[in-house]
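Its record is set out here:
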Amino acid sequence: MLTDPVADMLARIRNANKAMHETVEMPTSRLKQEIARILKEEGYIRDFRVQKGESFDTLVVELKFGRNRERVITGLRRISKPGRRVYAGKDRLPRVLGGMGTAILSTSGGLVTSRTAAERGIGGEVICFVW
C-alpha cells in the first residue's frame, strides 16, 4: 500500500506537537520543504533544515511553542488526498477559522497560502489547513 507523503508529514508534525517535542524528522521532498517554508513564513514553526544522509536526506522541523509551553499549531488537516483531489477556483478560495488559520494551495506558481492566491487571483489544489 502506498502512503501519502504529505499526510505522513502532517501526521508526524501533529504527533510531535502533541507530545511537546522540540523537533521532528522525516524523509524530505521538494513538496515537504515548500510546506515547511510556508509554515515558517506564517509563524507556525520556528525553523526547518535539510540534513544530508547516506541513502536519503532528512527534513528536520523545529516546532514552536508559546511562553508557557502552549502549542502554536492547534490543528493540521490534509484536505486533498490521492483518492479525492480537492480544487478551489480563484473566486472560491477556502477560509480556515474565518481567516484565523491558513490554507496551503498548490498552484501553477508553486505552493502558496490562500491569502497569497487571492492577491494573485489564482486557484489551485487545496493541500491542507493549518490553525
Observations:
- The chain has a mean pLDDT of 95.
- The longest helix spans residues 5-18.
- The chain has two domains: 5-63, 76-130.
